[in-house]
């Protein structure tokens, strides 16, 4: 049996751009992708904390250190610059692997620069 587990998460980024005139995807600062263990073109779920929208897309690596979080194409209808978002990536593994699995969780500052990378989240605590 294969289980779907959280692989990596970038928590509470600020959307910097929303571009309808693009084919599709989410552009993310490549340093954040690396910190979360998310690859370019990998499937992610993106949640808009402001309005509750949730969608699936794939990542495009943005300029390292830029802090860019840009929703492209149709996804731009659901996100505005300044919105807070959570980017999550999942992986498949068997029960034995899942037993010891710990996801990478990246926390950011107001400019979308990583402030902490952990593999543990505690319910009710953001920082």
TrEMBL record:
UniProt entry tagged with the keyword Ligase: no
Main location: cytoplasm
Keywords: Autocatalytic cleavage, Cytoplasm, Decarboxylase, Lyase, Pantothenate biosynthesis, Pyruvate, Schiff base, Zymogen
Modifications after synthesis and translation: Is synthesized initially as an inactive proenzyme, which is activated by self-cleavage at a specific serine bond to produce a beta-subunit with a hydroxyl group at its C-terminus and an alpha-subunit with a pyruvoyl group at its N-terminus.
Subcellular location(s) per record: Cytoplasm
Enzyme Commission numbers on file: 4.1.1.11
Domain of life (superkingdom): Bacteria
Residues modified as Pyruvic acid (Ser): 25
CDD domains reported in the protein's UniProt record: Asp_decarbox (cd06919)
Cofactor details (free text): Binds 1 pyruvoyl group covalently per subunit.
Enzyme class: lyase
One cellular-component annotation, GO: cytosol
Binding site for substrate: 57, 73-75
Listed pathway(s): Cofactor biosynthesis; (R)-pantothenate biosynthesis; beta-alanine from L-aspartate: step 1/1
GO biological process, one term: alanine biosynthetic process
Catalysed reaction, written as an equation: L-aspartate + H(+) = beta-alanine + CO2
Keyword Lyase annotated: yes
Gene3D superfamilies: 2.40.40.20
Quaternary structure, from the entry: Heterooctamer of four alpha and four beta subunits.
NCBIfam families in the cross-refs: panD
Official protein name in the record: Aspartate 1-decarboxylase
Species per Swiss-Prot/TrEMBL record: Bifidobacterium primatium
């Amino acid at each position: 049996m294969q289980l779907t587990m959280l692989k990596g998460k970038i928590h509470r980024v600020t959307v910097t751009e929303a571009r309808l005139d693009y084919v599709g995807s989410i552009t993310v600062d490549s340093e954040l992708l690396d910190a979360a263990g998310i690859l370019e073109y990998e499937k992610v779920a993106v949640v808009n904390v402001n309005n509750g929208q949730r969608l699936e897309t794939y990542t495009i690596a943005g300029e390292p250190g830029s802090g860019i979080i840009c929703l492209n194409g149709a996804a731009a209808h659901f996100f505005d610059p300044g919105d807070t978002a959570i980017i999550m990536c999942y992986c498949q593994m068997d029960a034995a692997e899942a037993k010891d699995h710990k996801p990478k969780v990246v926390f950011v500052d107001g400019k979308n620069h990583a402030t902490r990378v952990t593999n543990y989240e505690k319910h009710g605590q953001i920082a």
